[in-house]
Each structure stands twice: as C-alpha cells, then as structure tokens.
Amino acid sequence: MTRSFRAIRSLSTRFTLLSAIAFGSLAFSSLTAFADNDVATPLRQAVTALDDIAGNIAPSDSFAPSSDAASPPAPQAESSDEPSIETPLHHLYCVEYARLRSGLEIFGDAKYWWQRAENIYSRFTQPVSDAVMVFAGSARIARGHVAVVTRIVSPREIRVDQANWQNRGEIDHNTPVLDVSAQNDWSRVRVWDMGSNRFGSRIYAIKGFIGRGVAPSLGT
Q1: SS3 133
Q2: Between 19 and 81, whose confidence is greater?
Q3: CB 164 within 8 A of CB 92
Q4: Is residue 72 part of a domain?
Q5: What are the DSSP E strand ranges found in the chain?
Q6: Is the pLDDT of residue 137 over 70?
Q7: What is the pTM of this model?
C-alpha cells in the first residue's frame, strides 16, 4: 500500500467521523427546537404524566401480598387433658405408683388401703385433688385398685393417673372416672377404657379417698 493511498483513506475516515458528529448535533438541535415548539407540548405533558405514574408505583407492588390477607390458622396444640398411656422402664403396680405420686406410706394390697389409712391420713367420701381413690376388691380386680385424683371435672366426673389398670404395668394419664351412684356419693363408678375410647361397661365399688396429713375420719 502506497503512502498516498493511506493518506487518502485517513482523510476519508476523518470526513465520515466529522459528518456523523455534525449530523448528531443537527439532530439534537432539531429535537430541542421541537421540544420548545408548542406542537410538542401535548406530547411532553403526556410523557410527564406517565413518568409521574411510574414513579408512584413501586416495582414490587404487583408482587407484594396484601397486609389485609388473612393468615392461615396456627395448628392447634394437642390438649394435655386427653387420656394417654405411658410405658415405664419396668412393670409398675398400682400401689407402687400411688405411693410414689401421693407420698402415702401405706403398704399391702390396694383393697386394704382404706382401713390402714384410718387415724393416719385424712379420709373422704368425695373426690379431692391429689388424694388416692381406693377401689374395693372384685372379680375383675381381686386385690383392689388405687388411683391418684388429678382433677375434678364435675360433681360426677374426675380424672385420675393410675398404673397397671390394663394389667400391662403401664401408666394411664388423665383417665376419666364417672360416678354412677344413685346418690352421687362416689360409691360406684365407671372407668374410661383406653382401647374403645369410651367408658367401660363394668361398675366398680369405691371405698373412698385418702389424703395426706392426720385428720378426723370423714368416711367409713
């Protein structure tokens, strides 16, 4: 390539660049003049209005959840009053468990607890919280049974914690017990059956309730 040809191409390139700059300046001047022209006023006003609308809308507004929307209900915790079964580390008998829970120092079969508590502990014919409920012996429970009263639900219903009621050495918590005596004297009851989830059909004789502390006998 000769030096003359390179000079010609360089001049051509410079002319093209200058032409582009000149054209851009002319176009900018024309647009400025048009913008100042009364004809462009409606267009400028429309653009300004659109800009105002766009400026007042946050980009995330169309995606943000409404603060008024109702939150899903929180899951309800299971009631602690529901009857439940606990499996201890070793087989528990009702008298062993009742002693641990109540602190009563009474030994022997459960059907003897009522007599052995006389003049030592308080005895009641009506249920008392934390007292021990004494079942008389029967064909179903030859040695009797004892359970710890945990709550008075109504004049006819209480809740008890007890062990080995199902003869498996288990602990039954919050077991409902229903008074079915004619005089509401808690001499005859029905006990909740964990298997069928309802009160059992058997009726059990009750001797009374034993509480801690020395007090005059309130029942016989």
Answers
A1: strand
A2: 81
A3: yes
A4: no
A5: 84-86, 122-124, 132-135, 145-154, 157-163, 171-179, 188-193, 198-199, 204-211
A6: yes
A7: 0.61
Structural domain for 49, as ranges: 3-55
Residues 137 and 182 in one domain: yes
* 93 and 138 fall within a common domain: yes
Residue 37 lies in a domain: yes
Model pLDDT, residue 80: 65
* 218 belongs to a structural domain: no
Whether the predicted pLDDT of 45 surpasses 80: no
**CA–CA distance, 219 with 1 (Å, rounded to integer):** 131
| 218: Cα within 13 Å, side-chain hemisphere | 16
Radius of gyration of the chain (CA): 46
The number of domains in the chain is: 2
Instruction: Characterise 144 by phi-psi region: left (phi > 0), alpha (psi -120 to 50), beta (else).
Output: left
Q: How many residues are recorded in the chain?
A: 220
CATH code at position 194: 3.90.1720.10
Model pLDDT for residues 105-125, shown as the tens digit of each residue = 999 999 999 999 999 999 999
